Amino acid sequence: MKTVTFTAPVNIAVVKYWGKRDDKLILPLNSSLSATLDQDVMCAKTTVACSKEFKESSLWLNGKREDINSTRIQNVIKTIKKLALEKNPSNEIISWNVEIRSCNNFPTAAGLASSAAGFACLVSALANLYEIEGDLSEIARQGSGSACRSVLGGWVAWDKGTNSKDSIARQIADENHWPDMRVLIIVVNAGHKSTTSTGGMARSVETSRLLELRAKEIVPDMMRKMEKAILQKNFDEFAELTMRDSNQLHAICLDTYPPISYMNDTSRFIQYVVHSINDFHQTNKVAYTFDAGPNACLYLLEENAQLVTSLLCKSFQIGAEVFRGNEIPKLNENIDSLLMEKINNYWRKFDANDIQHCIYTKVGKGPSPTEDHIKSIK
Amino acid sequence: MKTVTFTAPVNIAVVKYWGKRDDKLILPLNSSLSATLDQDVMCAKTTVACSKEFKESSLWLNGKREDINSTRIQNVIKTIKKLALEKNPSNEIISWNVEIRSCNNFPTAAGLASSAAGFACLVSALANLYEIEGDLSEIARQGSGSACRSVLGGWVAWDKGTNSKDSIARQIADENHWPDMRVLIIVVNAGHKSTTSTGGMARSVETSRLLELRAKEIVPDMMRKMEKAILQKNFDEFAELTMRDSNQLHAICLDTYPPISYMNDTSRFIQYVVHSINDFHQTNKVAYTFDAGPNACLYLLEENAQLVTSLLCKSFQIGAEVFRGNEIPKLNENIDSLLMEKINNYWRKFDANDIQHCIYTKVGKGPSPTEDHIKSIK
């Protein structure tokens, strides 16, 4: 029996992936870009064991047995076993059955893309098990598109490429490049399952003319600008690009037929709060981005974290108890009254019931073996 | 002293006008298409008087004095007076001061585009006063873009044209062409002023790349298809095109920076109810369209009016008392339980507080002199 355990991170895109040009290989319509988040706060953890004694292969997610024969899981396992056989045809463990146990240290029900972390973790663990080296993003991509970006740390581009071999992840800058960047995820109480991103994307590709135009005419330029803003650590520019790209994703969803609405009134209120802060300060202090659900993900610099979290808490009438994460900023009661008045003027009131919790985190590194795992190797 | 009184209709676009290519002349980025609504239910009524005795010109809207020197009002008055002088330079009444009194028989606060009816009415009354004939849509357009389409009855296209002379209204079919077409306007309780359509459009033109692509690549084909669907009275096709075009307008608003959200959770629930009805019946029974606010405007055939209104009433827990208009359908308690279950499964509940009232109406004719006015001529 051989066992390996890895953890892998979540990533939050600032240039969104939406739409496949090849459903089987999961080749995207456009390039995308994300930050990989700190695994101390959010990660998937996967243990893969293989043994001659296992009568069958099995998959367990968060303690519950799932179908290991699902197409995407099999895509990943088969591709890795094939590479392993090419490298070492006499490696007998490749023929053994596997037991995969994966869990997340954050609620999957929260609508936070857990499949990216999960597939990046599975691929990393399997590659380690079978001693495969080199790029893993091509394989992770075939499990879940955005998992492609979770195999690296820091700021990661997924270049659309021309085929499967070059539609892979590329690190733009590592996790230490922009050390004061922080990420605040606001998990919104929605009480409903959204359209899945896979289902939504397929419908957009089929019905939205604007998606085609976005992928062709808009994203290439957006990628160049975003990469530059990140490399130059230009927050003002980075924030505007991030918000514009998120809005465009949701515009495409609305242009889809029948339309898809991932954001709700609470999401839009958070948008309003963010624009109010930025307008008030005449420069971008914080940026929102929304994925396939109503949760907001805010990018902000540490120096503005107290301002932003304090204002959000006051806006939703919540306290520090809703925050999870490390080095959570202290709440400050001294909020400018003009800014607070602008927010109070919003057409609807929101309160603690509209928010589930907030996660405060930062940019982090890519998948890694756990300490237990490292110990067991030594 | 000479006095004329006209009434003019509201119109609801099914291919939306969004964005000007010339702000002064109000030339649109794209062609648009609407139905003119029955004046029995909703209209603007304008009396224009001119007299040698009037010391100054004045404007009264719904009984309140307003600035007659606003650019758009002056654009209209000056253009008409110029035409009148060209026709009959010795017509002394042209030099007299005017008193304009206009009112709507529906609440302006309801967020229903009243400026289209108002300017179509003003232009019609002034043209009659000064005995001008021929196309009036070019002049109305310079008061308010969508007023261009309110100068004609039935189904009206506003061709974008190449200059001011040919950016005018064209009747596709008159008000008798599709006699069983009905319109149900659901006035949603929003409690907030939206971004004005003028302000919103300007921001979209400046910041949304998708708007440029919509105007150039998508609307020309949409206009052809919509015109054909109307001429063929193909409701299924008409409904899909109408909903797609409305969704695209709001997609553009979201792609605008900062983003504009006219629809709220109530609007999206109405969208959901409409798609639920259509899915359930495997054909389009009703279409929604939304303008620069959260109110829904539904197009439907009379034979389906009972089904749709009954379901809406049950969904919002409202009764027949919220309806205004003529020949309001009787509510029917026998709603298919599967359909009702689907609607009850929506993630949020809505009730009577979310709705202000509903207006049931149909397609109608263009501006006309009032009976009082006709009597006074006889």
Task: Describe the protein's topology.
2 copies of one chain form a homodimer.
Chain A: E1 2-9, E2 11-15, E3 20-22, E4 27-28, E5 32-36, E6 43-51, E7 58-61, E8 64-66, H1 71-87, E9 97-104, H2 114-129, H3 137-141, E10 155-158, E11 169-173, E12 181-188, H4 197-207, H5 209-231, H6 235-255, H7 265-281, E13 286-290, E14 296-301, H8 305-316, E15 323-325, H9 337-344, E16 355-362, E17 368-369, H10 371-377
Parallel strand pairs in A: 7-9, 15-16
Antiparallel strand pairs in A: 1-6, 1-17, 2-5, 3-4, 5-10, 6-9, 7-8, 10-11, 12-14, 12-16, 13-14
Helix pairs in contact in A: 1-2, 5-6, 7-8
Q: What do you see in this structure?
A:
- The structure is a homodimer of 378-residue chains.
- Chain A folds into two domains: 2-172 and 370-377, Ribosomal Protein S5, domain 2; 181-362, Alpha-Beta Plaits (2-Layer Sandwich), CATH 3.30.70.890.
- In chain A, helix 1 (71-87) runs parallel beside helix 2, helix 5 runs antiparallel to helix 6 and helix 7 (265-281) packs across helix 8.
- In chain A, 36% of the residues lie in helices and 23% in strands.
- The first copy, chain A, is an alpha+beta fold and 378 residues long.
- The two termini of chain A are 16 Å apart.
- The longest helix of chain A has 23 residues, at 209-231.
- Chain A has a six-stranded mixed β-sheet with strand order 8-7-9-6-1-17. In chain A, strands 13-14-12-16-15 form a five-stranded mixed β-sheet. In chain A, strands 2-5-10-11 form a four-stranded antiparallel β-sheet.
- In chain A, a hairpin with a 2-residue loop joins strand 7 (58-61) and strand 8 (64-66).
- Chains A and B meet through helix 5, helix 6 and helix 7 of A and helix 5, helix 6 and helix 7 of B.
